[in-house]
Amino acid sequence: MPEIVHVAVAVIVNENDEVCISLRHEDAHQGGLWEFPGGKMEGAESVEQALAREIKEELNLVISDSRPLITIIHQYPDKQVCLHVRKVTGYQGEAVGAEDQPVKWVAVSALSDYAFPDANIAITKALQLPDRYLITGKFSDKEDFIDKLTAAVNNDIKLVQCRLKADSFHDIEQAKQLISAAAKLCEQADAKLMLNVPD
């Protein structure tokens, strides 16, 4: 099995909530596609060290604040990569293509207009998710369930996982009522609903 190439990747967010993307050189692996900046980790570098080095080299930016976003393992026909993606919200400098690559700031909603390497698609999807979400917990009855869910969506929760365990409801009809109530509340709050129910 080929060795995994570990890559540090930055999703750099500016004050307008736009992300920085750059165009890969035609002669590079996956050339001609847009990417989130970053590069291979060298030696015993940590993700943060590799990211700081790569972003300084590629964009002439100095990172001051970042946090983990997602880790992706992807198999290309010729290699396997592990992308260690960090969301960068603090940096100094102005982004420039220090390696003569085109650089753009793009709204997250517009990322689908750009062609990315397959491994980057999961990053674009992760960026569309809220920073936090609710997993419904224990409740005593339907009213308690609705009260807790209402409090959460009123507290700006935009993604809810409605987790109903077999001991959470008496019968399938009650489960349907809970799911229906959750769907209605989430729709009113412009929140997305995921279901996690027993088979």
Description:
This protein has helices spanning 47-59, 121-127, 142-154, 172-188, and strands at residues 4-12, 18-23, 34-35, 38-40, 62-75, 80-92, 103-107, 134-135, 159-163, 192-196. It is α/β, with parallel strands linked by helices and 199 residues long. The chain has two domains: 4-127, Alpha-Beta Complex (Nucleoside Triphosphate Pyrophosphohydrolase), CATH 3.90.79.10; 134-196. The mean pLDDT is 89.
Task: Produce a short descriptive summary.
The protein is of the alpha/beta class. The chain is built from four helices and ten strands.
The termini sit apart by 36 Å
Mean pLDDT: 89
Strand order of the largest sheet: 4-1-6-5
* Radius of gyration from CA coordinates: 21 Å
The CATH class name of the largest domain reads Alpha Beta
List the keywords:
199 residues, alpha/beta, Nucleoside Triphosphate Pyrophosphohydrolase, four-stranded mixed beta sheet, three-stranded antiparallel beta sheet, 4 helices
Outline the secondary-structure elements.
Blueprint: E1 4-12, E2 18-23, E3 34-35, E4 38-40, H1 47-59, E5 62-75, E6 80-92, E7 103-107, H2 121-127, E8 134-135, H3 142-154, E9 159-163, H4 172-188, E10 192-196
Parallel strand pairs: 1-6, 8-9, 9-10
Antiparallel strand pairs: 1-4, 2-3, 2-7, 5-6
Helix pairs in contact: 3-4
